[in-house]
Amino acid sequence: MTTLIDGNVHAAALRARTKARAEAFAAHHGRQPRLDVVIVGDHPASRAYVRTKTRMAHETAIDGRLIELPETVTAEALLAEIARLNADPTVDGILVQLPLPGHLDGQMMIGAIHPDKDVDGFHPLNVGKLYTATKIDPERMLIPCTPLGSLMMLHDTLGPKGLAGKAAVVVGRSNIVGKPMAQLLLANDCTVTTAHSRTGDLPAVCREADILVAAVGRPEMVRGDWIKPGAVVIDVGINRVPTEDGKGRIVGDVATAEAMGRAAHITPVPGGVGKMTVACLLHNTVVAAQARAELV
Ligand SMILES: NC(=O)C1=CN([C@@H]2O[C@H](COP(=O)(O)OP(=O)(O)OC[C@H]3O[C@@H](n4cnc5c(N)ncnc54)[C@H](OP(=O)(O)O)[C@@H]3O)[C@@H](O)[C@H]2O)C=CC1
Ligand SMILES: Nc1nc(=O)c2c([nH]1)NC[C@@H]1CN(c3ccc(C(=O)N[C@@H](CCC(=O)O)C(=O)O)cc3)C=[N+]21
Ligand SMILES: [Mg+2]
Predict the structure, then answer these.
(1) What is the CATH number of domain 30-116?
(2) From the candidates 32, 53, 166, 179, which is the catalytic residue?
(3) Per-residue pLDDT, 46
(4) Binding site membership for NADP(+): which residues?
(5) Which Gene3D superfamilies does its entry note (predicted)?
(6) pLDDT band at 182 (very low <50, low <70, confident <90, very high)
(7) What is the mean pLDDT of residues 189-194?
């Protein structure tokens, strides 16, 4: 028997707790926590994601704003926009949607965001804190949203001590998902393997995993027989694949139908990790707002 880990349920619970905190913040400070999302260009999928983020913010008593810049914006103009948001005391969280157009350096833009407002947890200072922390505390650190959401679902599924000693395999080593995910699992006492495109015999590596996280960006690459019976599978992938009716549909990086009956628990796509990513972004916004309010 395989159970689905319902991202909608987990995300709704986290958003409810976050909303209560956001309302308490507003009652105390006379303004809502504020999140500014910067999007460059008009890639349709990116547009859809950022709209979800600002809509969910409003439903969570957070002042979510969208700043839309043209595809042709210069690095200087984008840096000036980030500097303006850094200097505005009513802005608690800044997110620059990635990827950026080719003429802009994403790492440079992330480095320009004030670390206290870096609700993605991508700034080198926050990355360094995550890397060196002996205790992961999502109340005191800005942790990348997708790995944090995945970790929260693992905690809820396996129990607070349920990760210790488990063999965890993360497929993918990006700075936004794979690497911070491996770091969180390590901090939770898993024995962690990070696999990537140069890994030899990836199916054999995956078969060792008690906890398998797929963050690759290849539709249904992880087959059912790569999954150790009884494993917990976190499917981070969001892949749009064509369908006969021309509308297309979203699938993950795991062949979910094949995993059924093999995995103990698996996150569906859609309705899994993605929902927690957005909820964690709102959580981080309130954490950032509270931390900044303590500073003044
Ligand atoms: N649900 C959510 O909230 C989110 C979902 N996503 C989705 O997660 C997926 C991964 O995103 P992201 O980390 O940004 O992607 P990247 O493209 O930045 O990284 C993909 C990683 O997968 C590895 N990889 C690629 N092909 C293979 C292969 N054949 N075998 C083994 N490893 C491989 C790459 O290895 P190498 O380093 O060697 O090139 C790389 O490390 C995407 O589908 C993305 O849309 C992303 C963010 C949030
Ligand atoms: N600076 C930055 N921070 C990010 O966190 C960031 C980013 N850039 N660039 C793109 C990726 C991708 N990402 C997702 C967020 C929500 C869903 C999501 O809500 N998914 C839903 C719906 C999926 C759908 O229907 O498209 C689900 O999985 O159920 C997915 C993916 C955040 N990212
Ligand atoms: Mg994120």
Answers:
(1) 3.40.50.10860
(2) 53
(3) 87
(4) 172-174, 238
(5) Leucine Dehydrogenase, chain A, domain 1, NAD(P)-binding Rossmann-like Domain
(6) very high
(7) 98
